[in-house]
Specification:
181 residues; mainly alpha; 7 helices; 62% helix; 0% strand
Length: 181
C-alpha cells in the first residue's frame, strides 16, 4: 500500500504540474528571448517561432517588417508610435506576450521619437525668425520715434527715420537740422 501511495502521488502531481506548463507557453518562451536583439533580429525571431508569443505575434512581426521598410523618417516615427500603442493594447488584452511586447516597445522608442526633433528644430527656426523680425520692427519703431507720432513729429516714416527735412505744408514744420546737415 505504500508503493501504491507513492505511485499515486507523482500521478497526481504530474497533471497539476503539466497543466500550468501547458497554459503558460508564451510566458515560458519570453525568458528565452535572445539578448541584444534589434528590430530586424526580433522580426527574424518572431518568424522562427510562429505562434509562441500570442495571437497578435504575426501582426507584430508584420508591423515591424513594414516599419523597417519605411524610408521616410517622419512616416516611420508615426508608424512606430502607432505600433507601440497597438502593442500595449495587445499585451493588455492578453493577445501578445508581455516580454515580447515590452521588448518591441523598447526597440521602437528611438524610431518613435526620431522624427519630432526635426519638427522641433523647424519650430525653433520659425521662432528665431519671428524673434528677428520682431527685433527689426522694434528697431524701426525706435528710429521713427516710437512708430508714429512720437519725438520725430508728424509725417515720420521708416524710410526717412525722421532725420530729413520736409517741405512746409506737407506735414507741418520741417524738422530741425541735425549735426549731419
Amino acid at each position: 500500500s505504500e508503493a501504491a501511495a507513492t505511485e499515486s502521488q507523482p500521478t497526481e502531481t504530474q497533471p497539476t504540474a503539466a497543466d500550468p506548463t501547458e497554459a503558460e507557453p508564451p510566458e515560458q518562451e519570453a525568458p528565452q528571448l535572445p539578448g541584444g536583439l534589434d528590430l530586424p533580429g526580433l522580426v527574424a525571431f518572431l518568424q522562427d517561432n510562429p505562434g509562441a508569443f500570442g495571437g497578435k505575434q504575426q501582426d507584430l512581426r508584420d508591423g515591424l517588417a513594414e516599419l523597417l521598410g519605411e524610408t521616410d523618417p517622419l512616416d516611420q516615427a508615426e508608424d512606430a508610435a502607432r505600433l507601440q500603442a497597438d502593442i500595449s493594447q495587445w499585451v493588455s488584452d492578453g493577445k501578445l506576450d508581455r516580454a515580447v511586447g515590452d521588448l518591441a516597445v523598447q526597440l521602437l522608442d528611438p524610431l518613435a521619437t526620431a522624427a519630432p526633433p526635426p519638427e522641433d528644430d523647424e519650430t525653433e527656426a520659425t521662432e528665431a525668425t519671428e524673434a528677428t523680425e520682431e527685433a527689426e520692427e522694434t528697431e524701426e519703431a525706435g528710429e521713427t520715434g516710437g512708430g508714429g507720432e512720437g519725438k520725430g513729429g508728424k509725417g515720420d516714416d521708416a524710410k526717412t527715420g525722421g532725420n530729413e527735412r520736409k517741405p512746409p505744408g506737407r506735414g507741418g514744420k520741417p524738422d530741425k537740422p541735425t549735426k549731419d546737415d
